Amino acid sequence: LRSLKRFPEWIQNGTGPFAAPGGCTGLAHIHSDVKEDKRPDIQIHMVSITHATDMGFFLFDNFNLEEDAWKYIEPHVGGESAGIVATLNRPKSRGSIKLKDKDPFSHPIIDPNYLGEEEDIEAFISGLKFCKKIAETEAFKKIGAKTWEKRHEPYCGHLDDEYEYLRCYVTAWSFTLYHPTGTCSMGKVTDEKLKVKGLEGLRVVDASVMPIIVGGNTNAPTIMIAEKAADMILQDIATNSQEDSMKAMKDEL
């Protein structure tokens, strides 16, 4: 409610808390200590909310948390909190999607296989260590910021060794950011023009045609895929139209 007083500032100048880009106010791409790929594999999100922000009304159920998880969250309800979140951008783990049976109305069997590869867990641990370094900087110390106490954490709080604690934390608290890709990947299900192999008149134009997930958010790349698909469709229409015209001319002759 205190932020409502800053609303006129946003209207007049475009500044203040209402000018923040949603709940995420900062991003960084870093390289973990694990992956051999030279490209960044960890994305850091600086978010202005935590599971305690909404007092358990929405986020708790949205993230499908267990009742025991509330023990870690409850001490911070009503206070000011923010999160530094490590995201695994180039996972080695691969999920699968299969047909359940011959019934077209049956839901498919979807197995995301999160953290199925040890390398992904180790990369996550490296990302959490980086988040910890950020939280311990002088900038955060000046505003009195502290990490949540381990003693309230119900799954891993009993672990004294830092590595074991972070490993447990990764497996207990990781969640998806809902960027699924690759279920109709080019080269396997679709061709270079996004046409489904073995079928006529069907293309797939979304993130599922990506053979490998991009190293970041999938929104902009999906828009690019759609733009390219639109061009290819127009080219095919023009080619078919020209071929039809040539056939008509031959028939007349």
Please outline what is shown here.
This protein has 253 residues and is of the alpha+beta class. The chain has seven helices and five strands.
Description:
The protein is α+β, with helices and mostly antiparallel strands. The chain is built from seven helices and five strands, in the order H-E-E-H-H-E-E-E-H-H-H-H. The strands form two sheets. The protein has a three-stranded antiparallel beta sheet with strand order 1-2-3, with helices on one face. It has a two-stranded antiparallel sheet with strand order 4-5. Helix 4 (118-135) crosses helix 6. The chain is elongated, with a radius of gyration of 24 Å. It starts with 6 loop residues before the first helix and ends with a helix.
